[in-house]
Amino acid sequence: MDPRIWHQFVPVTVAVGVGTYLIRALSLVWGSRLAWPAWLKQWLSFVTPAVLGALLGPALLLPDGRWILPWQNAALLAAVPTAAVAWYSRNLLLTVLAGVVFCAVAGYLI
Amino acid sequence: MTGSASSRAALILGLRDAVPIMLAYFPLSVTYGVLATARGIPVWATDLTSIVIFAGAAQFMLVSLYVAGTSPVSMTVTLLLVNLRHVLYGTTIGPAFTSWREKHKWIAAFGLTDEVFALTGSQALREPPAPAYEFALAFGSYLSWVAGTVVGATVGGAVPPAAASALTFALPALFLSLLLNQARRVPQIVAAVAGAGVAVAAQAAGLPSFGIVAGAVAGASTGLALATITAPGRRPAGHVRMARD
C-alpha cells in the first residue's frame, strides 16, 4: 500500500471530518441562540437555491473541471430532461433514477 | 413535545421523510465507493471517509485531490472551504431550534448535509421540527451513506466503467431535484442561476473551492434584491415581512 495513505489520506480525512462537524455544530448552536432580523432570515431563505446553483453550475458546465462543448457534454444534455422531471414530479428518487438513465442514454448517443 | 408517543410519531415521520434521501444516497455512495477504490484508495480508507466526513461532494473531491498529489495542508483547506457552506445551513435552520436542548443540537448537527438541509430548511422556520424527527432524518441518511460506500468499495472492480460513469450523474440529479422542489418562484430561480454563474466563473479562474461560498452569497443577495424590488406593497426597511415560502 502507498505510504501516503497513512501519512496523508487518513490525517486529511480525520481533519476534514472534525472540521466539517465543528462547522455544522457551531453554526447550528450559534444560529439558534441569536435573534435574527427578518431581512436576514429572508436572505438566508435564498441561500439554499443559491448554494444548489453554485454546486450545479460547475458540475454541469465544467465536468472534470474543464469546458466541454454543450452537445458533447453528457451531464449537461441529461440535465435538461432531468430538470423537467424534477419540476413536474417533485419526487427526489424518481428524479435521481431518471437522471442516471438520461445520462447513460446521452453518453451512449455521444 | 413531551411524552414518548409524540416523539415516536416524530421519529416515524422523520424516517418516512428520510426514505427518498436514503434511496438517493445509496447508489450515490456505491458510486463513491467504486470510484475511490478504482483510483487506488484501499477499501478500509474509503469506508473511513464516509464514516468520518459524511459530505458527498467533499469526499469525491478528496479522492481526486489525493490522486492528483495535492499536499495534505492544501487538501484540508480546500475541502473545509467547500464545506464552509454549512455555516449558512446551521445559521438558517438554527432559529427553528431555539427551544431545543443544547445536547440535541450537537447531535443533529452531525447529519446536516446538503440534502438534509434542503429538506428541513424551508419548512423548519414555519414549523420547528422535533429532535426525534431531525435525528431520524440525519442518521437514516448517514446509515444509507455508509452502507452504500461499504458495498461500492467492496464490489468495486465488478462494476463496468460505463455504468459507473452514468451513476456519477446521481449527485447533480439530486441537487436539481432539491433545487426545483422548492425554487418555484422567479427570485429563487434567479438566485440559483446567479450562484451557478459565480461558481462557474470562479472555477474557470482556478478558484473552485471559493466559488461555492461566493456563489451562495452572491446568488442569495441577488435573489433577495429581486424579491424586495418586485414585492407588492413594499414597505420601508424595518417593516419587512417575514420570509414567505
Structural key phrases:
heterodimer; A: 110 residues; mainly alpha; 5 helices; flat; B: mainly alpha; 2 domains; 75% helix; 0% strand; globular
Describe it.
The complex is a heterodimer of chains A (110) and B (245). By secondary structure, chain A is mainly alpha-helical. Chain A has a domain at 51-110. Helices cover 80% and strands 0% of the residues of chain A. Chain A has five helices and no strands. Chain A has helices spanning 3-33, 38-45, 47-61, 74-89, 92-109. The radius of gyration of chain A is 20 Å and the shape is flat. The two termini of chain A are 37 Å apart. Chain B is mainly alpha-helical and 245 residues long. Chain B has two domains: 4-182, no CATH class; 183-245, no CATH class. Chain B has helices spanning 4-38, 43-52, 56-67, 72-83, 86-93, 102-109, 114-124, 131-155, 161-167, 170-182, 186-204, 208-230. In chain B, helix 1 (4-38) runs parallel beside helix 3, helix 1 packs parallel to helix 8 and helix 6 runs parallel beside helix 8 (131-155). Chain B is globular and about 60 Å long. The two termini of chain B are 25 Å apart. The relative contact order of chain B is 0.14. The model of chain B is unreliable at 236-245 (pLDDT under 50).
Quick synopsis:
With about 110 residues, chain A is mostly helical. In chain A, about 80% of the residues lie in helices and about 0% in strands.
SSE blueprint and pairings:
The complex is a heterodimer of chains A (110) and B (245).
Chain A: H1 3-33, H2 38-45, H3 47-61, H4 74-89, H5 92-109
Chain B: H1 4-38, H2 43-52, H3 56-67, H4 72-83, H5 86-93, H6 102-109, H7 114-124, H8 131-155, H9 161-167, H10 170-182, H11 186-204, H12 208-230
Helix pairs in contact in B: 1-2, 1-3, 1-8, 2-8, 3-4, 4-12, 5-7, 6-8, 7-10, 11-12
